[in-house]
Amino acid sequence: MDIQSLRYALTLAEELNFSRAAGVHYIAAQPFGRRIQRLERELGVRLFDRSSHHVSLTPAGERFLPRAQRVLADLEALMRLAEDDSPERSLRVGVLGFGLADRWPAIRGLLGRHHRDLVLSYVELNWENQYDAVRTGEVDVAVVHDVGGADDLLVERVMDTQRYAVVPAESDLAHAPSLTVRDVGDRPWVLPAGQPGLAAWVGEGVQVGVEVRSPAATPAAVVTTGFIGMHGEPAIRFLPHPGVRYVPLQGSPAAVAVATGAHDRRDAVVAFRSAVRASAALDGLVPATLDETA
Questions:
Q1: Which residues contact residue 84 at a Cβ distance below 8 angstroms, ignoring those fewer than 6 apart?
Q2: Is the Cβ–Cβ distance between 149 and 218 less than 8 Å?
Q3: Are residues 71 and 104 in the same domain?
Q4: Are residues 169 and 144 in contact, defined by beta-carbon separation less than 8 angstroms?
Q5: Please, which pLDDT band fits residue 290 given cuts at 50, 70 and 90?
Q6: ∠256-259-265 over CA atoms, to 5°?
């Protein structure tokens, strides 16, 4: 999606006149109008109603443009940070499981454009140390499964993913369209070890069969024991295993968050947060607009 086209659309929403809006950006009305049309084609919806003497926002436009404004605000924050001659060139990023999943390419791309010298280093986290790695300084930022219990840190929730049951491929549950914890009955579970809040996410009354420290261990533990596991939806793509099936499981989603020191305002840390916000906003622009106009 063309960022300049977003700027044009926001200007047109303010001016509600193609000639005046084009003049703000010092281009002719005809190429300005083509950029707006191209943006609408990419989105699959009309953002503006036009007549020979009047321009107005459509309902889709009224929903889309505030999101576009947030995207641009985050990108501009990234560019301002890039202008600073900061000596920081490396950022240690702790990641639990699949982390930010399909958003990683967008985050790297945003940082690469605006902070070309910033190098991201990967540190594997587990459920037990996901918060402590920030507290001890092992990592600068952590991408965690937010289950509470970290009031001393700055924890920003950035993505919710539907939870899935991880069941043995030969199980009678493997082909169910969806499951509840009650459907599983008294079967034992493969559960995450760590913060107390994880138990609340899984649900009350489940039978603990075995605990694992890492999300990546869940499919193998399910295959080994025949127990039932639990994961967020991106695990289907990031942690595939021929011996398990992922089945939608009703209940609270898996909340992915970015955690840093409560008062950490280093440029690299702020840049990473801004890139995550911008990627989240970009990720939501088209689906949110299309879903609400269906």
A1: 267
A2: no
A3: no
A4: no
A5: very low
A6: 140
CATH code, domain carrying 244: 3.40.190.10
Residue 292 within any structural domain of the chain: no
Which structural domain, as residue segments, surrounds residue 224?
A: 163-252
* Nearest by Cα to 173 from 251, 243, 237, 245: 245
Give the mean pLDDT of 250-257.
90
Please, what is the end-to-end C-alpha distance for the chain in angstroms?
21
Q: Is 70 exceeded by the pLDDT of residue 287?
A: no
Measured at the CA of 66, the angle between CA 2 and CA 114, to 5 degrees, comes to 45
pLDDT digits (tens, 9 = 90+) for 219-252: 999 999 999 999 999 999 999 999 999 999 998 8
The SS3 assignment for 148 reads: coil
Average pLDDT over residues 92-106: 94
State how far the alpha carbon of 83 is from the alpha carbons of 4, 115, 208, 241, in Å.
20, 9, 52, 45
> What does the longest C-alpha to C-alpha distance in the chain come to?
70
Q: Answer yes or no: is 293 within a domain.
A: no
**pLDDT tens digits, residue range 5-30?**
888 888 899 889 888 888 887 778 88
CA distances from 5 to 12, 25, 69, 231, 241 (A): 10, 11, 12, 38, 42
The SS3 of residue 165 is: strand
Same domain for 277 and 241: no
When divided into structural domains, the chain yields a total of 3
Whether the Cβ atoms of residue 195 and residue 156 lie closer than 8 Å to each other:
no
